Amino acid sequence: MKTPYGISNFKSLITEGYLYVDKTPFIETLENQGKYNILLRPRRFGKTLFLSTLWHYYDIRFKDSFEELFSRLAIGKNPTPLRNSYQVLFMEFSGVSIKDEESIERDFAFEVSRRLRNFLEEYKYPAEAIHRVEMQSTPASMMKAFLGVVKDAKIYLLIDEYDHFANAVLGEDQELFCAIVGKGGFVRAFYETVKTATMEGIIDRLFITGVTSITLDSMTSGFNIGDNITYHPHFNQTIGFTTQETEKMILPIVETCKIDCQEIMGTLSKWYNGYCFSSRVDEKIFNPDMVLYFLRHFDMDTCRFPEQMLDDNIASDYGKIMRLFGIGDREKNFQILEELITEGEIIGRHKGKLDLDINKPFERNDFISLLLYMGFITLSGSVLSQYRYRVPNYVVQKLYYDYFRTEIEQRGRITVSSRAVENAVTELALHNNIKPLIKEISNVLALFSNRDFMRMDEKHIKAVILTLLYQSEVYFIQSETEMNNRYPDILLLERNPIEVRYQFLFELKYSKKKAGKRGLEEKRTEGIEQIKAYQQLAEVKKLPKLKSYLLLTDGSTIEAVAIE
Tens digit of pLDDT per residue, the chain (564 long)? Predict the structure, then answer.
């Protein structure tokens, strides 16, 4: 099995024998949906490959290759009347610099010019037509000249990563974003030209992908023709892998290594599954890039899981887009994130439109909508007219805690030593020595207490402890996991391929300083009783090498009490 990690060219996957999960049934669904569609998904979710599939299906230049490319796929067995009937214009804006407004417009214009030139050359337009386009100085004027040249053509416009550079700008400078995207901006002017082309029938169909709707929403009437199908139930599985598709992909591992299928699926689900893009469907979707990363790095010779389950490339990409957390009131946004990781969920209602109008505040539901688009939360249920949202999987959870570490350091003007935490967790895992970890937690809590950094209570202290624990790769960390209607605060569980001598259950109890020794003793008694109750649970009893600790704190100091 050739794993196509990092390969997004449909023709290469098909003709070079790579694994391909057949998403072509959605071509007909998309075709029937309407002419101008926008489908948004988180970073590294397989959007470019789906665009490439559409390109090869609709482009007249690939008509003679249709059987070779599609005969074994669903759409090849039941093609639509529009197959191979378009000249396809493809655009992509991930390479635009965000140094300043001048460089942004220059790079954007370069990408537009390059893509238009490629199109005209590929479809054998005369050199004079190319020259006419390249004589123009702005992206909008280039597009107008281009449309004048191809006015008799039937064009399908595909735009990939339409908001890549815009999101980067927005994360750095909201005023600059509004200047280039809002009224009078060159981005809006470009899309107004595209809108005109659809009205005139030159662009017959349009499909756009990106991460969030902010850029299109901010252009308001500049581009209001597209149907945002991101949360449409029919398209929940269009991009990403279903459970059934993932099970098929791991069959070679199951058969070669004699590993139980459900064991592998359980691990993959914890790390990579959990995405849901419609409130009207139940099935969760796996992040495809994460699954392909696992398949590529699984050692078939020794039948061992990858040493790192989190792809550094994904962490880097998500780290960049986290800058959008600063839109609006940064402190209120931080409180929402804090609520998410301490409560395990947030409740609100995502919006269909995210408009950064300076006269409108960026409110809680706006930020929830942004998190949903970016893949940092996913739908998990409803409460009357509102929805429940949670973190989709362990990868995103770890990214959150990496972000929280940065926030803690900046807000408290402290430095968290990842090396010290790593060493402390190693001592814990190999020798059941909790003292180094308690020392690291105490150091951070003492600084918070002295600087009045946090609204000190048990949930916030737990967030600090989890943030420290997530700096280590040793354990699979679970927080508030439901076990027969009981919820242990923290579980540190063994994860493939790392073998540890001990697993752990932590229960945290906080007593305010003003409650004194009596308050601490009451919390000590309460915590010990809870842990002993946990230890009687069937799910806990079957955990091998388990050690239990009560973590007792007054907010500035912390004590670990072993419970046998």
Answer: 799 999 999 999 999 999 999 999 999 999 999 999 999 999 999 999 999 999 999 999 999 999 999 999 999 999 999 999 999 999 999 889 888 899 999 999 999 999 999 999 999 999 999 999 999 999 999 999 999 999 999 999 999 999 999 999 999 998 999 999 988 999 999 999 999 999 999 999 999 999 999 998 988 766 788 899 999 999 999 999 999 999 999 999 999 999 999 999 999 999 999 999 999 998 999 999 999 999 999 999 999 999 899 999 998 889 889 999 999 888 899 889 988 987 889 999 998 888 787 677 889 999 999 999 999 999 999 999 999 999 999 999 999 998 988 887 887 677 888 899 999 999 999 999 999 999 999 988 887 655 544 456 788 889 889 999 999 999 999 988 888 888 899 999 999 889 999 999 999 999 988 888 999 999 999 999 999 999 999 999 999 999 999 999 988 889 999 999
User: Which H or E run includes 466?
Assistant: helix 458-469
Q: What is the pTM of this model?
A: 0.93
Whole-angstrom CA distances from 6 to 2, 213, 290 are: 12, 25, 11
Helix (H, G, I), strand (E, B) or coil at 503: strand
DSSP 65-125: GHHHHHTTSHHHHS--TTTT-BEEEEEE-TT---SSHHHHHHHHHHHHHHHHHHHHHHTT-
Q: Would you list the domain boundaries of the chain?
A: 10-235, 243-274+279-309, 313-390, 413-563
Sheet holding 475-479, edge to edge: 475-479, 490-494, 503-510, 546-553, 558-563
Select 413-563's CATH number: 3.40.109, 3.30.420, 3.40.50, 3.40.91: 3.40.91
Three-class secondary structure of residue 533 per DSSP: helix
Q: What angle do CA 192, 198, 203 make, to 5 degrees?
A: 115
